[in-house]
Amino acid sequence: MQPTTDADVIVVGAGLAGLVATAELLDAGRSVILVEQEGEASLGGQAWWSFGGLFMVNTPEQRRLRIKDSVDLAWQDWQGTAGFDRPEDFWPRRWAEAYVNFAAGEKRAWLHGMGHRIFPVVGWAERGGYGATGPGNSVPRFHITWGTGPGVTAPFEAKVRDGVARGLVRLAFRHRMEDLLVTNGVVTGVRGSVLEPTTAARGTVTTRTPVRDFQFSAGAVVVTTGGIGGDHALVRAAWPERLGTAPEKMLSGVPEHVDGSGIAASAVAGGRIINPDRMWHYVEGIKNWNPVWANHGIRILPGPSSLWLDATGNRLPVPLFPGFDTLGTLEHLRTTGHDYSWFVLNTAIIRKEFALSGSEQNPDLTGKSVRDVLGRATSGVPGPVQAFLDHGEDFISAGTLEELVAGMNELAKTSSEGAAPVLSAEAVRREVEARDREIANPFSKDSQVTAIRGARSYLGDRLIRTAAPRPILAPKDGPLIAVRLSVLTRKTLGGLETDLDSRVLGAGGEPVPGLFAAGEAAGFGGGGMHGYRSLEGTFLGGCLFSGRSAGRAAGR
Predict the structure, then answer these.
(1) Residue 491: closest CA among 551, 540, 455, 555
(2) What is the per-residue pLDDT across 179-222, written as a single tens digit (0 to 9) for each?
(3) Residue 484 CA neighbour count, 13 Å, CB half
(4) Are the beta carbons of 502 and 550 closer than 8 angstroms?
(5) Which residue numbers delimit the FAD-dependent oxidoreductase 2 FAD-binding domain (predicted)?
(6) Among 555, 512, 503, which residue's Cα sits nearest to residue 187?
């Protein structure tokens, strides 16, 4: 006689991967309990906050912009970026290859069939700047969702809520999973604490006061609980030597409840964690002047024209230009002994090139307003960026370079790391004027100037992302601007090792019966399909792909 279960499958975590897995289970006719420690306002998890960028290959949007892409080129870029070099990379590499083919195949049509739409201009993220087989995207592949993060999550949330209406899904909010139930070596359910109810807004801190225990049983469990980016102690503990020492001061790109608890519980149940030292943090973080969670940071999505200086005033080396190599820049900046760096630019550059990551920082795209999007491309500084200029503690404006550097030195004193280096206005002027001289003629030995001109050969960059190459000190393009940049925690690239059916594997490489994992908890597939670096647009995509795989496999 079969034991009684509460549902066919339990999905733990109501972020994007959990919603996708649940939607796939519903398509298979399965009953699901969706367990989530936060309140209902947090449905959709981190994906809801995102810019909605998706990595796709050889799409109609690319072809309309005369971008020639292919699976072979994308796979070449992925391998050069990932740098797979460990025995543990067997499944991550297989996941990566499968994902690239998915991104070049049914991904767009699958999403389109659910109502997903794409902004027509394709972005060029992580441009690399090394050789053909080095890291970076050879062509623009960053497809922005019309509706940003909420536009990505909405089709799956709708399917889940329809499942609730049909009696196939139970939404168990404020249920914090603490342990997986294991019976005779098979994962058969979850248990934990029911937390007191909350009406807290999405992303804000909630209480951890338990009111009772709970226990659910099922034929399988899918863990989609995210990574460790909200717990800086865990980030520092996993920080690899190759990236230098971890910063004393970091901003948080995710709320505090992103704490890796699901990964830890799965390990206790027999799952194997691989590549825990691989992580993805941004170096263009700014403190949110209107924070949602503690230490809330926002990432600048920069165009290629800002002059990037380290804390001592030295220009960053080639090819560490804005938007070219996130992790390479992080590694270099950790050698400087300081936790911050600077963009130096002017109003003309910020007007054209600054975007801010996140659905709430892009109301035009999030609200699907064609008029407001056209206004962004044709008017002054975008409203959300202007708000940071007006209120953000990391922004300085000045009429002269000497005044700008004086403001930078005053701001540097607020760093928590102790005595800050004092910038020399004369030295900063030398860097800026040297750069400006290279702009003044059609020839240049400056690689960044060459990169700016190369970017503007792409229509999408010329229209909305890259300012015409002009001197930073051009009076009519002022005032001058400096932005203090900090490390912003974001993604865990390693995680639970899984096969292509998202089954969690044990120490000997065998599946842990009844246990599946997807999303960031599984390193977006296999325990780290990105390897050491990301090509961007692949975190949401990894949640979609691995959530789909987990839901389909668990449904079988």
Answers:
(1) 540
(2) 999 999 999 999 999 999 999 999 999 999 999 999 999 999 99
(3) 28
(4) yes
(5) 8-540
(6) 512
